[in-house]
Amino acid sequence: MTLAGGYRELDHPADIALEVWGDDLLDLLRSATCALLSVWLKPDGLEGISRSSPRVEGRESIEVVDEFDLLIQWLNRVLLAPQLKLRLPHHVLDLDVRGGVEGDFLQAEISYEALTLAKGSSEALWAREIKSVTYGGGLNRDPSGRYRALLILDI
Questions:
Q1: Phi and psi at residue 43, in whole multiples of 5°?
Q2: 3-class SS at 102?
Q3: What is the pLDDT of residues 92-114, one digit of tens each?
Q4: Taking CA 83 as the corner, what is the angle to CA 79 and CA 87, rounded to the nearest 5 degrees?
Q5: Which of 39, 114, 136, 143 makes a 20 to 30 Å CA pair with 81?
Q6: Is this prediction's pTM over 0.85?
């Protein structure tokens, strides 16, 4: 898979800071998911389970106040999915966002591909425990329309 966006890990005194970017909101969600998995899983974790685990598609409906909230809410759902659903979302397939007019909430529908995890097997995948993803420095758009965000992973 080739991403137009990307990410890099930044120095942070207590937690993990990630800067993520993408050409559009969908690309940003993909880059952020990839970034989260790269610091959360052991180096061969995703590759190892992708060989032996069936792939499933899923959908998440999320009501958020803005695009940055969508990014944070999605990543926290990725963190919880192995415990709640025995799935590991690893690739965002599509995004549909509606609303957001005059203070309304945004309604987002995210389609994703996930790997099914065997019960009790997921603990061996994690390189470190990540408790949550929090707001780092907001979501920005450059003059060309590309998205950039700073995220803090609470460890």
A1: -50, -40
A2: coil
A3: 999 999 987 666 789 999 999 99
A4: 75
A5: 136
A6: yes
